[in-house]
Amino acid sequence: MENSSVCNICGNLMEYCFEVKVLCKYLTNLNHCPQCGFLSLENPDWLDEAYSSSIVLSDTGLVMRNLTISKQIAPLLFHLFGSNGMFVDFAGGTGLLVRLMRDVGFDFYWHDPFCTNIHARGFEYDPGQSPVDAITAFEVLEHTIDPVDFLNETIELTGAGVIMISTELYKSYPPKAEDWWYYSFETGQHISFFNRKTLESIAHRLNYIYKPFNGIHVFYQEKYSNKVNSYFNSKVVKFISKYKLNKSISSLTMSDRKKLLNRV
Fold first, then answer.
1. pLDDT digits (tens, 9 = 90+) for 142-181
2. Are 231 and 238 within 8 A, CB to CB?
3. Less packed terminus of the chain by CB within 10 Å, N or C?
4. pLDDT tens digits for 198-227?
5. Best CATH choice for the domain 62-167+195-263 from the list 3.40.50, 3.30.160, 2.40.50, 3.90.380
6. pTM of the predicted structure, to 2 decimals
């Protein structure tokens, strides 16, 4: 089947991959970019229905995922920015990751126009705040029609030089519908899919550098290269960062409580 849609990552023509049924009733095509590997569902006009609840019932890994991610990114953020720095979690969902990171001691804020902030109330991001050092966007890109546009908007809004995301990657060839759970066609929320080459192409479009790190994908500006490389290439640096993190940074749990009580 011929297809003339253009890849939102690299501008190459997409190719038909196979037909799928979304939300168990909408037929559409999964298209593949032979240049950068981007996979996307064609004309996702079911999104309003898919997001009648922003967090799907079947996302049983939400809490465990946030607990794991908070432990993974804390030493790296400390290595890059020490005990200072300001951070924003985009598409932050219930605010669980923001609360976890503030409990560690990082000045994290929440942003999500489509979800209710439950765990990080009082720490919503205001674009008028100080420039942001890094942003996180975990399990987000697969929900976007144009991932580059989404990331560009976050950069323009915050000025962040480091971006950390998570998304499952496929390998060399697009998996069959029945062979990859991450498609999640039955929920209708995942519409974009990536391999490593796709993320490298996104980094190129952003003029950032890309590094994979234990399931987390880091995009960063050239000025952070030395610090990022020293962390990724040395077990000693990682160990020291974890040690210093535990010794040099204090939880914001109680100071946040006092701050919020003063607002009442």
1. 999 999 999 999 999 999 999 999 999 999 899 999 999 9
2. yes
3. C
4. 999 999 999 999 999 888 999 999 999 999
5. 3.40.50
6. 0.92
